[in-house]
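Table S7 (text form). Paired inputs.
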Amino acid sequence: MQGFDSVLGWLVSAVGIATGAAYVPQAVRIWKRNSSADVSMVTYLRFLGGQLVYFVYGVRIRQVPLIVGMAANIVGSVVVIGSALKFRAPK
């Protein structure tokens, strides 16, 4: 069972990093268009909130795969939010 847990831990980390990388196309699109008009800040802020909760939980229970995965997702969310704020049209 320990071998399965080890593989599962690596898989959780890999999936977390992959989902964190999934934010890259949105950030690239914002930068290419110099616009974030079609980006829902509420959605990304909610993603970030959930990711922070899971990250803190991972730290609290000392689960490195969860910490790694959520850290990658937090970076992705912050990049999209930062890009969206930079290119947000003034009201």
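Next pair, protein 2 of 2.
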Amino acid sequence: MVDESQLPVSEGDEEPDAASGEGEGLGRVSDSEPTGISDSAGEAPSLKSSFASGKSASATSKILVVLFATVLILGGIYATSPDELSDTLSIEREGFDEEINRKMILGYKTPFLMPGIMQPEIRPTSEVRFAADCPAIGVTVGKASRVYPMITLMPNFTLQGENGQIVNDSLGGKLLTVTNDTDAGLVRVFGLSETSSRKTIGLWLMGRDDGGGMSLTFDQESDFRQDQTEIPDLADYPFEVSTLSKWKAKHPETDVYVGEFTTPDLQMESTLGFMSATERIEADRVLKERNRQRKVLSPKRSSKREDRSKTAAGSTSSDGSSKPKSSPGPAEAGSPGKASSPDNRR
């Protein structure tokens, strides 16, 4: 039996190359297969042909897929986001109006930096003329006592750029800082805590926190709210809410923090609304005299005096001597050109 595989192969009986056959098959296009190319040169390719199986997508189809996926992603993010992140898109949620109104009244977070009072003005009670019934807070350390009229703890700015709501003080050898948040209506007096290693307090105002509330700072870098329960290095020190007269009656040796109201007239003027009828009469007299003195010394009044003196100087002669007017005598009673005399009458 002869093995046909060992027989020589003639030139005409060569086996067809499978690879070349496959290549020719790839190179040929069947008439029945869709080509995706229009017979007409002016006709655009259809969207259906762009998504044909085994064909690469066109640029238009890629853009559509990307846009569709983007819309799905953004919609999913919005649908799963918490209310806090979508406040601007959910104005109708419960409590939205109340929250906005509270922030409009108390304020949004407004960071700024301003020192508190570092060298408070203290006066003995004998030199103070605040109204007797003006509200105040009092502090006692051992035998020493001090009263702070509330009018002196307002958010005023001193000439040195200090804020009047924070008073860094010392009483009886103890460091104290009085703070008054006028917006929240909260007064707190701080002293150093037992575990603190600080040598001074020296609080600064570091703006307003979100929704109101004072932000305080030691180092002008990190801040804390004035109303928070625990504050590093500080502890609450007791104080008493009273009036000036009641505190003086209870502590006769007390002194008074006067703030920027360093003179009696300013002290009286700042507390007119708390004065009795007798106090008001005396205050009106003092303020009237002060205003009269200011008017006398005012620049406008000085300029008027200078104008009058210049006018009077202009009426004098050039050599500095003034010529007084002589009163008309009997000789001048006649005609203006000639003196009246017995000879003329004849």
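The longest strand covers residues 163-171.
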